[in-house]
TrEMBL record:
The keyword Metal-binding applies. It comes from Vasconcelosia minhoensis LEGE 07310. This is adenosine deaminase. GO terms for molecular function: adenosine deaminase activity; metal ion binding. Belongs to the metallo-dependent hydrolases superfamily. Adenosine and AMP deaminases family.
Length: 346
């Protein structure tokens, strides 16, 4: 049995359609009543969108109900599914804490409330029944003011046991006018030993080389091998890993066919750039991480050697995996020790 590490999963997009629908029926009938039945809701929730911007609007629907009180409900079901159905040993959940605070509060009050959200997510993620190593990545956001994004970085430093890194999310076209802000915030994070990733080079509108030196991993990054392969040498030299989320690119209209990803993987492998396969928004896509691997394999995008390389890279680049080895090596060592004891009669 393979065990997986998931490095790029959004809390807002991780809720599977059936769980979200049941929550709406029980707690938000005003939202459930927009749809005639579950089938209509599932189609609305999971169908591909024309652009990244249209796709991101779905996050606002989920964020509006992921309140302090509701987060444990969603996270328990998320962790349970990750353990039982996906064989996850490690999971990094990313989200923008500001968007889980009450909208009725002032900006200052919402910033002050962000710490409690982090604590709620941290407690809810620790499920002894489903032992998945789980940490948070806090997302700055292209739609939020500098003060909120700065507070997000500062909170990441204050909660090192629960938060393993920061990210920047939101529509990537919106980064352009605020690059100096994000460069400053990422520099601050690195100076405080906060690990960094960022949604970058996902679409052709999101290509900002100014941010690359500050990232330890690159959220998506597919436009580097597709449109800017000259950057691969620098990416490899920095030891950066690309977080590739295959289904996303068809949900957002970024790519047309899965065969286009073959060039992404081939060029990365040839350049010595590590790739971690991820789901991004497993609920919105109605897909699980093992399927992403299987689909890439059966569609001849990668082979078994590439699959194993990506599995290993995910654990190697995990910001908070607590062991020197990935699970398969640990299990193999345990089995060899057991065989030794059996042979020796111990």
């Amino acid at each position: 049995m393979s065990l997986y590490a998931e490095l790029h999963r959004h809390l807002g997009g991780s809720v599977v359609p059936r769980v979200l629908w049941r929550y709406f029926q029980r707690n938000r009938p005003d939202l459930a009543d927009r749809f005639s039945d579950y089938a209509e809701f599932e189609q609305f929730y999971t169908q591909p969108k024309s652009t990244l911007e249209e796709y991101l609007e779905l996050h606002t629907l989920v964020e509006s109900v992921q309140t302090k009180e509701a987060l444990p409900y969603f996270i328990y079901r998320l962790i349970r599914g990750a353990y039982i159905f996906e064989n996850l040993a490690y999971l990094e959940l990313r989200y923008t804490p500001y968007y889980r605070t009450p909208e009725r509060l002032t900006q200052t009050e919402r910033i002050d409330a962000m710490a409690e959200i982090i604590e709620v997510v941290g407690r809810a993620s620790q499920q002894s029944e489903y032992p998945v190593v789980t940490r948070q990545i806090l997302c700055m956001h292209s739609r939020l003011p500098y003060e909120v994004n700065r507070a997000t970085v500062e909170l990441a430093a204050q909660y090192p046991d629960q938060v393993c890194g920061i990210d920047v999310a939101g529509g990537d076209a919106a980064y352009q006018e605020r690059l100096d802000e994000f460069v400053q915030l990422y520099a601050q994070a690195r100076s405080q030993n906060i690990k960094t990733t960022g949604h970058l080079y996902e679409t052709e509108n999101g290509c900002y080389p100014e941010l690359l030196p500050y990232l330890m991993r690159i959220g998506h990054g597919i436009q580097i091998p597709l449109k800017h392969p000259e950057l691969l040498k620098q990416v490899a030299a920095r030891g950066q890993c690309l977080e590739i989320c295959p289904t996303t690119y068809f949900q957002t209209g970024t790519l047309d066919e899965i065969s286009q990803l073959k060039q992404v993987f081939n060029r990365c492998f040839d350049a010595g750039v590590d790739v971690a396969i991820c789901t991004d928004n497993a609920g919105l896509h109605n897909v699980r991480l093992p399927f992403e691997y299987e689909n890439l394999l059966t569609q001849d995008v990668i082979g078994f050697d590439g699959l194993r390389a990506c599995q290993a890279a995910a654990f190697r680049h995990a910001f908070a995996w607590p062991h020197a080895e990935q699970p398969v090596s640990m299990i193999s060592s345990l089995l060899k020790e057991r065989e030794r004891l059996v042979v020796s009669g111990g």
